[in-house]
Amino acid sequence: MDILFDFLKTTGFYQMTPGNLAMIAIGLLFIALAIIKDYEPLLLLPIGFGTIVGNIPSIESMALGVYDQGSVLSYLYFGVSQGIFPPLIFLGIGAMTDFSTMLSNPKLVMLGAAAQAGIFLTLLGALAMGFSPEEAAAIGIIGGADGPTAIFLASKLAPHLLGAIAIAAYSYMALVPVIQPPIMRLLTTRKERLIRMKPPRQVTRHERILFPIAGFLICAMIAPGSLSLIGMLFLGNLLKESTVTERLANTARNAMIDIVTILLGFSVGASTDAQQFLTRQSLMIFGLGAASFAIATAAGVLFAKLMNLFLTDKINPLIGAAGVSAVPDSARVAQMVGQKEDPHNLLLMHAMAPNVAGVIGSAVAAGVLWSVMVG
Amino acid sequence: MYLYALIPSVFETVSDPATSAAATIAAVASASPLRGWEAIRAADGIGICVTGTVIVFVALTAISLFIALLPHLLAALGPWLPEIHSHHDQPLPTASDSSAEQTRRLAATVAWARHQQRP
Predict the structure, then answer these.
(1) B32, A223: Cβ pair inside 8 Å?
(2) Cβ contact (<8 Å) for A218 and B66?
């Protein structure tokens, strides 16, 4: 009988805390959002399930959780904590990305730079709220709207905040269709939303092959901290564009990115143990994350309007919001908001230019912040 | 005085083996007296913000300029650039190709059947 009672004390029912229950509810919410609302299901579903797994109480003497040395989950989490998974995801993103629209209209690259204002203004906000500079930098990168970049920088600068930052980044990425449209409508007039842009020109194969090599050299020379992210992004793109490594490109954009996404999502979710996650700091990070997305969107739209003061071929300022590098969701949102005014205005291909430029911009910003903080 | 307030909280957390390093850092952060503009100034937040924004703009402006110049560069280098043949550009198999392939398969099948019938 004693054995039975001892065993019962080791069960999850006995050790469950209100915090664990709350986190399991959040995990279930993520799974529901993924399945019912189709919000970023590839990410929210593994993160949600991981959250449930990470909040099942276990015995202290058993190595089960991500923070227990030698546990299976700790080995999976190693790819997150050491920043291994994000560059692998970037390899897949590179192998999926078509830079043609950006190559055909290079001025749209600047919108991707403008949207990174969200990162640096959020950094100021985080400092003002009492976070250390390293923590503030890791929180600010949420404004880059790039989950892998946020995880990469958080693992380097503020590993103790990694769970909260990753969850905030991916949650807001999933909520891009909810957060961005009101800001875009608020900052633009109907006349601006109706602007039709010239169709992009045809880009030659030489251009598409040379760009990843030159783009990497430029970024890595300016911000060496972004080396692993940018390097893998452009390697993936070169694999795709060269067409001589089609098998590798296919693996990178299909099997590999899927495997890494599962491992990353699940282990990030499993790292949200209530004792580590349910803190005042996490709430502040969520607040700052929402602000950073709003600032990034506004900065992109306003910069497009500023550019229009000097351009003869006007830019539809809605595509400025696509500088937030949530690929391709923010580009889709620009298309959706534009089509509400003019159903025949196809903004998606134009919006992809700032969108992919935003990916490069946020990786460079992460590299800069890393260099500044450790330098 | 601030340092005095900070040190015991750090040592308390460090002395407890069950407390993680994360909690120690959190304790330091929460014990930090600096908030608002004071904190931004102490960490040189404006400097980081301006420097970071400028570097991102410089990097993407350089990329933008390179992209704008690329067609002119390629036009100038045109005579020296090698022709690039895409693996996707390979001609589709012709009717004669497919009949040759069929013949090859047929020959292989016949050879295999004869091999099986050997005593």
Answers:
(1) no
(2) yes
